[in-house]
Design a protein that fits this description.
Blueprint lengths: L2 E9 L45 E9 L15 E9 L4 E10 L6 E14 L3 E12 L9 E11 L2 E12 L2 E12 L1 E6 L2 E6 L2 E16 L1 H9 L10 E23 L2 E12 L14 E11 L1
Antiparallel strand pairs: 1-12, 2-3, 2-15, 3-4, 4-5, 5-6, 6-7, 7-8, 8-9, 9-12, 10-11, 11-13, 12-13, 13-14, 14-15
Length: 302
């Protein structure tokens, strides 16, 4: 058996983040990044809003999460994420947007710009569909391997309950990855509560299923034996990179967003509880303890 030393992990699938745990655009959730240490917090998808029910609008949003995770993994880095974004939604269901990600520990702090475009609408009265494309621009060359993502979302309403799933194909630099996010979410709203126009909660439970590519440095047994038996220090053998791929359940994600809307201003807080699942070949250093935290978001619609 060769000797392995894990030097990095390139997760090529993960959880669909929702504007740092809250929905960022109607019927569409923001995607997480294919790079450890430069990703957004996990959460389940909030209940989608039919595009036809909304007027055309420009939305400015600022989100904050005290923890930065990828499919529940923190890779030993405790850092917060701040995400400003600007999105335009047309009442037809088409939308475009741009968002940035700032991290409290990473250098530089600003690492990513996410450019997105998509379309979503209803089939009948209960089935919502959404197609989207994201392109990631990293602030430093070589930081990101998968720089594109195409996603398809389907969500079916059964009274106050929504059953949904999202499939995403990530690709770039000759590599691809897959992720699947089945989810169940609820919706409850109260209107005209004093100066509050609307108060609503959107509890959700989702599972993250995807591929995980793990890069190792391999030291052949023959080379290691020579170094071990040598009486004098020998020049270290040069390792060879090799890659193993695993596919399976990566995490369970529970989210409880509470939001208030006052005129064109919306603010919310989300309680997140995340259970990461270790895949084959993954090192415990990725961080598989349960995660519990509250994230925040504010937005204004023009």
């Amino acid at each position: 058996m060769p000797y392995y030393s894990v030097v990095c992990r390139k997760l090529i699938a993960g959880c669909l983040a929702v504007g740092l745990a809250l929905a960022a655009r109607p019927g569409r959730a923001q995607v997480s990044l294919p790079r450890p240490g430069a990703v957004r917090s996990d959460s389940a998808t909030a209940r989608p809003t039919p595009p036809a029910a909304l007027p055309s609008q420009l939305v400015v949003r600022l989100s904050y999460s005290p923890q930065t995770l990828f499919a529940g993994r923190d890779y030993g880095l405790l850092q917060s994420t701040t995400t400003p974004s600007l999105n335009y939604y047309h009442r037809s269901g088409a939308y475009v947007g741009v968002s940035g990600s700032l991290y409290s520990v990473s250098t530089p702090h600003y690492l990513l710009t996410d450019l997105t475009a998509g379309y979503g609408n209803l089939l009948g009265n209960n089935l919502l569909y959404n197609f989207s494309y994201d392109h990631y621009v990293f602030s430093e060359a070589g930081q990101g391997t998968l720089t594109n993502a195409g996603s398809v979302l389907l969500s079916y309403d059964v009274g106050p309950i929504s059953l949904g799933t999202t499939y995403s194909l990530l690709f770039g630099n000759g590599q691809t990855g897959h992720r699947l996010l089945p989810s169940i979410s609820g919706y409850k709203a109260w209107k005209n509560l004093g100066f509050i126009d609307k108060l609503f909660i959107l509890p959700s439970l989702s599972a993250t299923i995807g591929t995980d590519n793990i890069v190792y440095q391999v030291f052949p047994r023959k080379a290691v034996s020579k170094v071990t038996k040598a009486k004098k220090p020998a020049k270290a053998a040069q390792p060879v990179d090799t890659e193993l791929t695993s596919f399976g359940l990566m995490s369970w994600n529970l989210a409880l967003p509470v939001k208030v809307r006052i005129s064109n201003f919306t603010a919310g807080a989300t309680y997140n509880y995340i259970i990461p699942i270790q895949l084959a070949h993954e090192s415990a250093d990725a961080g598989f303890s349960h995660k519990s935290f509250v994230s925040f978001t504010t937005s204004y619609a023009f």
